[in-house]
């Protein structure tokens, strides 16, 4: 059939991947396509195992990611596609690349033939819905293009895209009953909250999908135009077909576009999206496409991708190596995503419509992952876009008062830890690339550094985060220390000396977590007592334990701002090298926690997750770069392949791939903001980086192969080069770095002058800048619990040697004139104990505050008896009398002292054995909303004389939060009328019916975690 011509903005290619070949692939599919960079990209890499990538069509940093969906629930379907599946439910226009959480999957189309089906159906039985079986051998994917043959309908589906428009080509068989399903309910792990469509022409539909998921409130408006007028159109609402529907609204809206098709008849559909309005989507459609020439769009996508990929030209190496390299480079440029219309309007963090003045607005900032290598890579190959990423971050700060942590479609998800917008912003400023308001940027950085949430209040006041006050305290502490360094360096750059001193001292706080006895960065409580028992192999997950998606091995080497200080903590170069060696020599297990992210193990080095990514390069700092070279080649060879399961972990919006791109070129940014790149072992004969300033930086190797992995000598622009690092300025200047490779390790780069250095504070400035203070910890008690039955003996101790401890028992603040602790004393009633420690120089600790409770609890005797009326959970189970055993649970939901309840009321009845005079009853509940743990909606307290008739004495209610609050324990307390004695107490807690729409699990049932019932 004839096709109209499309009008597109063509981007000229600056460099070719293979210089003697033409740049642009032919749009005529019958002609063989010439070899370009895109030829080496395989979008199927990462679609199996735990890579979480998608194979569909997108443009560099494009708003549209048009891709097939094979599944929409479960961890390995975060992108909507997994290679283990053999059926497709349709093609939606938004997808996440390599994330550890699912969302998007908006505006799904599916071509079908025969009986109309309005539900997707199951993988187990695709025939029950509009799904279709497919075979992987009949799939094809390359940058900007995807195709598959749908076996059940004998339809070939092809996809391509512009920045804001997805273009489909469906080749139908001859049929009286051909259809295209438009499913607006469909989404990946989210919930549709408002869907509608309107027919605006005989070949056009417009509408909206508004959803709640990881992005708690996401708008996707669309305009869909079809190359063939509809034969008829039916709407679907709540499963019911509506004939000749013109407009349908609801939360489960779909449309069925009906056709009569001839043999091999093509129907092309163009779908433009917008976060602003239908009008915005229409402007996008009109600006980026004219007519229905699918091949012209495909050809343009290929050309644009080839231009982008050609920024790094790899020569030498085989096809597999180039495939892994260019696919990795491709993956780094899928996100962040354009998030504005062609008229520069976009939805902001305040959900208002804004206009981006002088920049392109972006979304999807997976910063815990991408600050490490992806954004530093952008400073080399996409500095303009990186500036716009930062301008987008600053706009989000102005709209919400907060820099992005993990932002998605104008929603802050709060996922992961740290405030890693800071190193991205700082890197651009420190490299002289800041084409943005640096004073505004600094103001935003300070706001992030002073935000009291997420444990920062403790970090800033104590120098570390106590493990009982915040989950993942060690990981948060070391990452905050790094972020503080980046704030300090910007302050220094801007001449803010006093603030520089403040923040750079915070950058050294990681040292407070180093335990000389074990040789690890580990957790301790507010009294300075190390967490016990301690097992460096024990993995904890996001929201629980001392580490984030890892263990002590994974975080022991995270101080990129102060590697030399870290080396000193470990006792010098030899000890530091031996410690890294032992990391690789440990057993490759993940503690049976089924921590999906802790993958790609070599010993306890985990390439499949980010905390380990810089560790191999640390050998250079200690003088054994040959070990870096050996291990880098091992990881590249073992953890990256050209197969669908070719990634050892989540791709994570480019970080897993950016690691490979840097490492294959031969260097890596250990500190993502200090402008140094640590040299490893390049894999290609020649790499040319084409810089935006017109210069080229070339890395050439001699005798490079799978055996010759060691650098024996090097020159830079013909002069001997012995240092094992490069600076950003060296690269920007352009030049040629030549390396001779050998099968034998050499002494190259081992002397001190050749090593990179990393000090948070330069040794020459240390005396003037570093504030040394005597640390005196709060006193602690040796009691297992502050709850006691008859009497309790109290002993006070302190982790600081040679201190005197003073205390009060009347609730007043202790001083050096208070009672001196000399020996254990007895408490016989509920008492508030406060204590301080003072060292020989008169330096005082902060005040310890212990509220001892004389209470009824189960000590092994007959009474009190606890009876519960809820089903115990096998995993979150405090034991038979766990909520009446006299011991408080901690903030850690996995400490074994919580009873977890979901989908039911919690009812507990306590029989004291006889009538007692009571004063107060309380019960504790955990709030950890990221882990689906919410406070009860309602708590009721009852008392009874006989256990038959209960008197309600208190009702307390909570409100559903509209954001993730700090993890904490709330104790709900009621006073008991003292006019009577009671034998029985009953507590009833009622949960909220469902998680809120803003929550990633919106619509599912929340958990309640209950703690100790205290009866005084």
Automatic annotation (TrEMBL):
Residues 788-848 form the GH29D-like beta-sandwich domain. Residues 40-274 form the Glycosyl hydrolase family 92 N-terminal domain. Its EC number is 3.2.1.-. SUPFAM superfamilies: Galactose-binding domain-like, Six-hairpin glycosidases. Its cofactor is Ca(2+). NCBIfam families: aman2_put. Residues 1-21 form the signal peptide. It holds the Pfam family CHB_HEX_C_1. It comes from the Bacteria. Residues 280-742 form the Glycosyl hydrolase family domain. Keywords: Calcium, Glycosidase, Hydrolase, Signal. GO terms for molecular function: hydrolase activity, acting on glycosyl bonds. It is an enzyme of class 3 (hydrolase). Monomer. This is GH92 family glycosyl hydrolase. PANTHER family: PEPTIDE N-GLYCANASE PNGASE -RELATED, SECRETED PROTEIN. The keyword Calcium applies.
């Amino acid at each position: 059939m004839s096709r109209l011509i499309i009008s597109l903005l063509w981007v000229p290619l600056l460099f070719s991947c293979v210089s003697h070949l033409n740049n642009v692939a032919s749009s005529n599919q019958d002609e063989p396509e010439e070899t370009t960079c895109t030829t080496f990209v395989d979008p199927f890499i990462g679609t199996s195992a735990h890579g979480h990538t998608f194979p569909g069509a997108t443009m560099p940093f494009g708003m549209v990611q048009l891709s097939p969906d094979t599944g929409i629930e479960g961890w390995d379907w975060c992108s909507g596609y997994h290679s283990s599946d053999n059926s497709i439910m349709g093609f939606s226009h938004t997808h996440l690349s390599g994330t550890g959480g699912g969302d998007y999957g908006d505006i799904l189309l599916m071509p079908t033939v025969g009986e109309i089906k309005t539900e997707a159906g199951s993988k187990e039985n695709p025939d029950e819905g509009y799904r279709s079986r497919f075979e992987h051998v009949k799939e094809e994917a390359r940058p900007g293009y995807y195709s598959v043959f749908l076996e059940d309908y004998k339809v070939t589906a092809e996809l391509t895209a512009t920045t804001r428009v997805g273009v489909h080509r469906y080749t139908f068989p001859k049929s009286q009953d051909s259809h295209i399903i438009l499913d607006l309910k469909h989404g990946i792990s989210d919930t549709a909250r408002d869907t509608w469509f309107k027919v605006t022409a005989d070949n056009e539909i417009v509408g909206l999908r508004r959803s709640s998921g990881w992005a708690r409130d996401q708008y996707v408006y669309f305009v869909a135009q079809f190359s063939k007028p509809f034969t008829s159109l039916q709407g679907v609402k709540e499963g019911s077909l509506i004939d000749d529907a013109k407009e349908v609204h609801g939360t489960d809206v779909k449309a069925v576009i009906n056709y009569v098709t001839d043999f091999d008849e093509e129907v092309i559909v163009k779908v433009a999206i917008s976060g602003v309005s239908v009008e915005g989507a229409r402007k996008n459609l009109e600006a980026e496409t004219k007519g229905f020439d699918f091949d012209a769009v495909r050809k343009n996508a290929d050309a644009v991708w080839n231009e982008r990929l050609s920024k790094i030209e790899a020569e030498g190496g085989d096809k597999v190596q180039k495939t892994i390299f260019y696919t990795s480079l491709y993956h780094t440029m899928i996100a962040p995503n354009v998030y504005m219309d062609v008229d520069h309007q976009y939805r902001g963090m305040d959900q208002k419509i804004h206009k981006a003045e002088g920049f392109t607005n972006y979304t999807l900032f997976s910063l815990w992952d991408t600050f490490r290598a992806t954004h530093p890579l952008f400073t080399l190959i996409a500095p303009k876009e990186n500036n716009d990423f930062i301008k987008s971050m600053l706009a989000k700060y102005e709209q919400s008062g907060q820099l992005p942590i993990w932002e998605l479609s104008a929603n802050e998800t709060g996922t992961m830890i740290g405030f890693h917008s800071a190193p991205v912003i700082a890197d651009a400023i420190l490299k002289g690339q800041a084409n943005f308001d640096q004073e505004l940027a600094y103001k935003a950085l300070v706001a992030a550094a002073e935000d009291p949430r997420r444990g920062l209040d403790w970090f800033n006041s104590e120098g570390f985060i106590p493990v009982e006050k915040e989950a993942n305290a060690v990981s948060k502490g070391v990452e905050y220390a790094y972020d503080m360094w980046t704030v300090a360096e910007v302050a220094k750059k801007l001449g803010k000396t006093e603030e520089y001193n403040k923040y750079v001292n915070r950058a050294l706080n990681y040292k407070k977590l180093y335990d000389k006895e074990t040789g690890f960065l580990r957790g301790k409580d507010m009294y300075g007592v190390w967490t016990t028992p301690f097992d460096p192999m024990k993995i904890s997950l996001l929201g629980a334990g001392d580490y984030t998606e890892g263990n002590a091995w994974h975080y022991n080497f995270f101080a990129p701002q102060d590697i030399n200080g870290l080396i000193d903590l470990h006792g010098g170069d030899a000890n530091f090298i031996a410690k890294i060696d032992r990391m690789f020599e440990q057993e490759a297990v993940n503690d049976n926690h089924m921590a999906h992210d802790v993958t790609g193990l070599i010993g306890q080095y985990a390439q499949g997750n980010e905390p380990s990514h810089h560790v191999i390069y640390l050998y250079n700092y200690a003088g054994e770069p040959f070990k870096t070279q050996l291990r880098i080649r091992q990881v590249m060879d073992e953890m990256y392949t050209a197969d669908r399961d070719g990634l050892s972990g989540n791709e994570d919006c480019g970080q897993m791939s950016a690691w490979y791109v840097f490492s294959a070129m031969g260097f890596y940014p250990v500190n993502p903001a200090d402008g140094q790149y640590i040299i490893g072992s390049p894999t290609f004969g020649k790499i040319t980086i084409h810089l935006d300033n017109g210069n080229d930086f070339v890395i050439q190797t001699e005798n490079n192969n799978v055996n010759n992995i060691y650098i024996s000598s090097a020159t830079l622009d013909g002069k001997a080069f012995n240092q094992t690092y490069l600076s950003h300025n060296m690269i920007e200047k352009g030049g040629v770095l030549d390396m001779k490779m050998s099968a034998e390790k050499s002494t190259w780069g081992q002397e001190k002058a050749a090593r990179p250095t990393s000090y948070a504070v330069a040794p020459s400035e240390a005396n003037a800048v570093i504030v040394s203070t005597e640390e005196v910890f709060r006193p602690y008690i040796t009691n297992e619990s502050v709850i006691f039955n008859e009497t309790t003996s109290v002993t006070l101790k302190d982790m600081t040697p040679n201190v005197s401890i003073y205390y009060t028992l009347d609730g007043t603040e202790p001083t050096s004139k208070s009672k001196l602790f000399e020996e254990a004393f007895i408490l016989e009633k509920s008492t508030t104990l406060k204590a301080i420690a003072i060292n020989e120089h008169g330096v005082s600790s902060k005040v310890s505050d212990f509220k001892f409770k004389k209470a009824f609890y189960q000590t092994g005797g007959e009474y009190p008896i606890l009876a519960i009326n809820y089903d115990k959970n096998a995993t979150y189970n405090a034991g038979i009398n766990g909520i009446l055993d006299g011991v408080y649970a901690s903030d850690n939901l996995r400490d074994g002292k919580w009873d977890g309840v979901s989908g039911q009321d919690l009812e507990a009845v306590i029989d004291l054995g006889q009538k007692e005079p009571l004063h107060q009853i309380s019960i504790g509940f955990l709030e950890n909303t990221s882990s689906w743990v919410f406070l009860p909606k309602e708590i009721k307290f009852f008392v009874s004389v006989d256990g038959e008739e209960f008197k309600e004495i208190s009702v307390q209610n909570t409100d559903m939060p509209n954001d993730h609050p700090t993890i904490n324990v709330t104790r709900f307390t009621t006073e008991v009328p003292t006019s009577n004695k009671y034998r029985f107490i009953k507590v009833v807690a009622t949960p909220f019916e469902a998680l809120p729409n803003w929550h990633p699990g919106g619509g599912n049932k929340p958990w309640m975690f209950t703690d100790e019932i205290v009866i005084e």
